[in-house]
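Readers of this paper often ask what the protein records in our data store actually look like. Such a record has a labelled line for the sequence and another for the backbone structure tokens. Nothing more is needed to write down the fold, since each code stands for a local backbone conformation. The record that follows is passed on verbatim for readers who wish to inspect the format.
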Amino acid sequence: MGIIAHGIDLVDFGRIEQMVERHGERFLDRVFTAAEQAYASSNRNGMEKLAGRFAAKEAVLKLLGTGWRGKIAWTDIEVVNTQSGQPIVSLSGEVKRIAERIGIGHISVSITHTANFAIASAVAMAGEDEGERV
């Protein structure tokens, strides 16, 4: 499996908090899936979790080379955790079509937090295996 692309993003918690305060559910539903919102709301540091997922989504869009435009929806990228806590990315819609077109078989993501910021790094790998899918 070869590396195709890398994306990284840094998000200030305050930016996400302002958007939630300003736009409430409309912002949350536009940017985060129900599973992502449930995960954040089940944690005492929910804003940190939302900021981490936002950074991961931005990192994925950067590795695709598209940015957020056209038919791409924020919820085309979902970041959930495995039972052990590792974040994993699932793609759907336009983002999945773009990833498949450029040969991405897997995206590995890492998220970390500081006192005020969330940082995410995403690495796209080619799918060598027919069973490997984004």
Summary: The two ends are 13 Å apart (CA to CA). The chain has one domain: 3-126. DSSP finds four helices and five strands in the chain.
